[in-house]
Each structure stands twice: as C-alpha cells, then as structure tokens.
Amino acid sequence: MGMIGETVDSIKSLQIRQVLTQAVSLGMIVTSALIIWKALMCITGSESPVVVVLSGSMEPGFKRGDILFLHMSKEPIRAGEIVVFNVDGREIPIVHRVIKVHERGDNGEVDVLTKGDNNYGDDRLLYAHGQLWLQRHHIMGRAVGFLPYVGWVTIIMTEKPIIKYILIGALGLLVITSKE
Amino acid sequence: MHSFGYRANALFTFAVTILAFICAIASFTDTLNSPSPTVEVKVLNINWFQKQPNGNDEVSLTLNISTDLQTLFTWNTKQVFVFLTAEYVTPKHALNQISLWDGIIQSKEHSKFTITTSNKYRFIDQGSNLRGREFNFTLHWHVMPKTGKMFANKIVLPGYRLPEEYR
C-alpha cells in the first residue's frame, strides 16, 4: 500500500518544470538508443547489425533466442560462412550456412546455395519459386559473433505483446515518478 | 533515493556488466590457442560421371577422410563445424566451391576420426567443365564458441584431377 500511495502522491506533486525535465531526459534516452543503432549500422555496413535467431534450423550451433552480430564487408562470400539473407516474397530473413559458391571470373558476381545445419536438405525449397541460387543482393550480412539467450526478450515481447505493454507502462511510470 | 526500484536497477545493471565482461574475456582466451589440425583425403572410387540433360556435369565420388581436429577445442568451444569442399577454376568462373561432406563435432573425444563416404551433397558444375578438371580438396572448419567471436580456417590439399571421359 505504501508504495502505491507514494506513487500517487508523487504524481500529484508534479510541477510543470519537473515534467518538462523528465520529458527531455526521456527524449535523450530514446534518441541516444537510436544514435547507437544507426552508428552500428554504419560500422557494420549491414542494415540490421543484430538479429535474433527464431528457428532451430542451425542447431546445435545457434538456438532459438540467440543473438547474432552481423557484418557486411566487401569481401567475397565463401563456402561455410553463415549468412543472413532475404528471399523475395518472405518477410523474415533467414540465417543459414553457405554450402556452394560459383563466382564469375569477369564481373565477380556470385551464385551461392545455403543450407541450415540442422535441416536435411538444402534451401532451394525456401527460395522463391524457381530460384536456384542466391545472389549478392539477397544477402544482408554474415554472422561474426553471438551471444546466447539474450534474444528471448525480443521473442517473448513479439509473441506476447501484453508483456511489452506492461513493461513499457512500468518504465514510463518509473520515469514520471522518479525525482532527481 | 534508496528505494527498492533503484537498488534492483543498480544490481541488475552491475550483473549484466559483469556478465558481458566475462563473456568478452572468455572469447579473448580463444585467441591464445594456436591449433594445428591435420587431414588426409583419398578418392576411393568415382561412382559415376555424366552430363545431366540440362548440360551440367555431375560426378559422384567415394571419399576416405581422416582428420584430427583435437587442437581446435578449448574450454569456450561449443562445436566445430567441419566440411570438405572441392574447389576448382573454370574458364567462366574464377572460383567454384562445392561442399561434399560436412559434420558437426561437439566434443574433443569425437574430433579424431576416419570415415568413408560418398559425397553428401551433389557435385554438379554450372556448365560442362568437369572432364579432366584439376581441383583441390579443402577442409574448412568453423569454430563456434560458447560465447563471443567465431573462428574459421582451412587446409588446402591440391593436385586432384577428374577423369577425361564420362563413365
């Protein structure tokens, strides 16, 4: 009871100046998060520098909920690398390993074939209808490092949106009621 | 000032910082390991070698692979993904890499072995360039750590050649 009472009191005792200060500091937090994300995009050269593994197709290497750090360099794509690619007509990118590479001699264009370590066959069934190979423009980046479990936060929040709203609400309340 | 929320927040932040720090150190210790794996590949038989109706050459091989990857394992190693490719150059393509076999090794005890297998993935060229083609076998390994940076390297075994005629 005490905590709720205090919270209500602190909301009542708010003054304009204080509200403004808090709004500004909240804005600072949001913008600095955005700046960090965009800076990571510039450094890694990938449009999404961090991805969460959603399926078990790369087990036991990557499990559902692991976080992968991506890097997109000019270096050519080689067999064995784990790449994140987009297929036309599919919204969610896929993280799989390259098993075949054919690189043209004249213009350096590549045809690659991928496969999930835990899948029985290659990925031709996942590609767009009639597509046999992935080209450079399908590939968003290659995985360079990973952090286990952390991605569960995002998975839970996307699958159970109610938790997301509770969390945002609680954080918002904390920001409003905190006095510095 | 010293409310429950603040204390919980401080404790959580501290715990996450320490965890991130330990992960970084664990990943760093991997760089101190200098592995020296060995591999030997023999082509036991060419099962068949033909041109597909669409004009691409395809060959089927029986391979004997013996390898020792024990030095790749450290305390931060979750698994080693090892695979054998055939790599060759054709007039049109500066590089062709075809995976023929792969395996996931999760412990040091299983990292020294010899197997005889036919190629797990189809050995198909983009075109009809395989007759008499010189190629090399390359054993690649990708080390997946429990946390942190992934490592990869390879051994190239040059000097193999496919037959001049289909069979």
UniProtKB/TrEMBL annotation, chain A:
The keyword Transmembrane applies. This is Signal peptidase complex catalytic subunit SEC11. Catalytic component of the signal peptidase complex (SPC) which catalyzes the cleavage of N-terminal signal sequences from nascent proteins as they are translocated into the lumen of the endoplasmic reticulum. Specifically cleaves N-terminal signal peptides that contain a hydrophobic alpha-helix (h-region) shorter than 18-20 amino acids. SUPFAM superfamilies: LexA/Signal peptidase. It holds the Pfam family Peptidase_S24. GO terms for biological process: signal peptide processing. It catalyses: Cleavage of hydrophobic, N-terminal signal or leader sequences from secreted and periplasmic proteins. Its main location: endoplasmic reticulum. GO terms for molecular function: serine-type endopeptidase activity; signal peptidase activity. Residues 36-143 form the Peptidase S24/S26A/S26B/S26C domain. Its EC number is 3.4.21.89. One of its GO terms (cellular component) is signal peptidase complex. Belongs to the peptidase S26B family. It is an enzyme of class 3 (hydrolase). Keywords: Hydrolase, Membrane, Protease, Signal-anchor, Transmembrane, Transmembrane helix. It is found in: Endoplasmic reticulum membrane. CDD domains: S26_SPase_I. It comes from the Eukaryota. It is a single-pass type II membrane protein.
Automatic annotation (TrEMBL), chain B:
GO terms for cellular component: signal peptidase complex. One of its GO terms (biological process) is protein targeting to ER. Transmembrane segments: none annotated. InterPro entries: SPC3. It is found in: Endoplasmic reticulum membrane. Pfam families: SPC22 (PF04573). Its main location: endoplasmic reticulum. Keywords: Endoplasmic reticulum, Membrane, Signal-anchor, Transmembrane, Transmembrane helix. It is a single-pass type II membrane protein. It comes from the Eukaryota. Essential component of the signal peptidase complex (SPC) which catalyzes the cleavage of N-terminal signal sequences from nascent proteins as they are translocated into the lumen of the endoplasmic reticulum. Essential for the SPC catalytic activity, possibly by stabilizing and positioning the active center of the complex close to the lumenal surface. Belongs to the SPCS3 family. This is Signal peptidase complex subunit 3. It comes from Vicia faba.
